[in-house]
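The freezer alarm interrupted the setup, so I double-checked each line after restarting. Inputs confirmed:
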Amino acid sequence: MEPLVKEGNITVPYQWTTGPAVGKFLTELRDNKKIMGLRCPKCKRLFVPPLELFCGRCFVEMKDWVEVSEEGKVISYTVVNLPLPEPCQPPLPPPYALAAIRLEGADTEIIHLLGEVEFEKIKIGMPVKAVWKEKREGSILDIEHFKPRG
Amino acid sequence: MEKVAVVGSAQTKYERKKESQHYGEMVYETVRSALDSSGLKIEDIDTVISASCDMLDGRSISNVFTAEAMGAFQKEESKVEEDGSFALLYAYMRLLSGRFKTAMVVAYSKGSESSPHSYTALMMEPFYQRPFGLDGLTSSALQARRYMDKYGITEEQAALVSVKAHKNAQNNPYAQIKMDLTVEDVLRSEVLSSPIKKLDASPISDGCCAVIIASEEKAKKITDKPAWIKGVGHYLDAYYLGHRDLAEAEACRLAAQKAYQMAGIKDPLKEIDVAEVYDAFSYQELMLYEALGFCEKGGGGKLMEKGFTQMDGELPVNPSGGVLSAHPFLAAGLARIAEAALQVSGKAEARQVPKAKTALAHGTSGVCLQANCVWILGR
Amino acid sequence: MPRKVAVVGTGQTVCVMRREDASFPGMIYEAVNRALKDAELTLADIDAIVFGSSPEYFEGVNHPEKWCGEASGGFLKPQFRIHTGGTVGSSTGIAGYYHVASGLFDVVLAVTGDKLSEGPVQLCLSTVYDPIFGRDFACGAPSAVAIQSRRYMHKYGITEVQAAKVAVKNRKNACNNPYAQLKFPDITVEMVLNSPVISSPLRMLDVCPASDGACAMIFACEEKAKKITKTPAWVKGVSAVAEGVNYVNRDWAEPIALIKAAKTAYSQAGITDPRKEIDVAEIYEAFTYQELIWSEGLGFCGPGEGGKLIDEGVTEMTGELPINPSGGVLSTNTIGATAMMRQVEAALQVMGKAREVYEGKEYNRQVEGAKIALAHGWGGAIQFHNVMILSSNPD
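Predicted 3D structure, all chains:
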């Protein structure tokens, strides 16, 4: 007897609440082309991007919003070749490059795409700069990608 | 503190697709096997703790439909939605409290019925990480590159892990991928997300693992070869990938320290006879050597090269073939404990490390070794 | 004998239909902070954390305990997640208890929550149904409970009016609880009976709301508990039992898992006459009929007498055994935190802290002299039941 298979899908529409920290970070991207971080009053780390209004390490509120440079360097990267199934698709088809980028002034890395670069030329420590979209909507993708600079 | 031991276990043969079995049947088969091989009946089990994931199963409250299959009808029961090694921890706590004397711990998943990419991609919050389609593979690739860059680890060193894993798997009747590989085979395999190549990565698997633990008095009646729990530790690291140094498995380090402290272990490389670690990717095993204290920071690659962790080395790691040979989500960590227990009890057949007295088992949950649970078992 | 464990602090967020001002981790952080403040502790005093939330589809993030890890206080601390459906709140509380009872940890924080407003709740609840046999018919939670309610009415002659009285009692009680979402000071039985039918026999006012909220509680071993607070709430009995889904002769009106869980918990706590010995109960009545069925399962009255219990006013605030002074689940249902709120409210009762001034207004839901309280949760395909007994007396 052939095994019988039932196909199905679970599709759920969402309206995710960003909360005040993510909300402000994304709003600044959209409205002012600014990349902001939150500094912990205790450990002094500048979290870019900030996930919440509190420092997870010190468990205290962070109120100090600080703008960081849109320039930084590559701390790690990967060139993705594998096409990935739905849901949760990347913004481009493979191959594309993802990187962890330490922006000047930040104490954490931001994960984003690397663009306008030949994959073989990507190096750790490579200086990069944000490339902004013309039309921005309050999303991490308001930055199109980071490209090599200098 | 009450002494508790692993007194029995069962694993399914891990396969890409178990299409002839429904979840419940797979779970029942494993639980039945664990009971039968331990000489126990379901009535002998005081409490049942399971590990399963709703999104992976495609049904919310996943234990609703498998509770009966694991013998939890009218029993004290709960579910830990983490890797099975954490479920065992909760069961261990229940036994330590004295309220229960025996526990059945079950962890399972069917990667074939869902999308393993989704399983990890949906762990990403919707704002900063999900828009890039980041998942377990691509985030581990970022981790691997960072680790390589920080400590000069090479792709060849990582490839040695895969070669060892798939060779060891040949001795494990449950393992899914058994191969005779060379380092060149690994290096030439398709690059999925650099630097992770196909043979650096674990497969997609269906499978179930069940472990039975019992308090001292009962344990001694059930088996003459109990694998006593000597120590355990569990810790969680930061969530957003950029908020921690991915080259350091800090939470694993802390978990191991706690487990060693409980077990009275001061020199892991010398005092541990065999280890089963959760190596979803070859690089992660090298990172784990460091986090578990088998070598200094950055020394994972060299330790592998020197052969310390081979079957004939000083501290064989993953005689079972590890997660690189079979990766049923949630069950994989519990399977590491089952394997470690088999080693200590002298029941690991063709993959037995001779005279293994003390074993380490490691499980992880989340991506990039975010949450870790480390166990020490001994005679 | 297990180590003695007590609840030494609690925290809840004010529950509303949608928190626009906070993300899911943000709400968790709030609840954790409130519990720490209540116990006058800092995170450094916490040895381990247990996190609970219900089906991931609600927030659309898998393994949310990772996303909420730092918010739960879990950065480089021991933490893991419990998820057992509707009982998750109480299962997490029970896991927190076992963390301490095991002797592995002395002070443990248990935190739960859900943000149901992120997605369509009933669609997500429909994913509970089995994909092969049930999902094509799934109509969320109300239709499953409607079947239970109808069976219960038929078996024992329970009436719509008796069920409606539960709604009236609890929604009025909610006015004394600053954290409750729905407060209807002027609700009447007529209003309930005239509200639209959702899934017969359940009407709109027979049914719980969907809330955004979080809740936390701190458990401590005896030695530490006595130092942390003058009024610990001692855990005297815990039980979490599962029954089956589709087993032969399943009677939806006879909750065998609850009967067993209650029996176990009473035996541990040395309770032989629950109706007399329990001073207050917080039970999980997501739907009005359930308060009556669970009262029977808990032994507050005989089988079929649930209706009589409410008719005689036994469970009113002024009655012999007040049920749900907090307003219960009919007033607030985050799903994730709900069953823990029952444990928190029960703890507040025996700690004598079920009264407070919130934003300048006084709220009082304290049952005077309450010494022994019961907290209950249910979940799954109405097959999981948890019971916890708390007492102001350690012995």
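Quick read of the result. Residues 190 and 198 of chain B are 5 Å apart (CA to CA).
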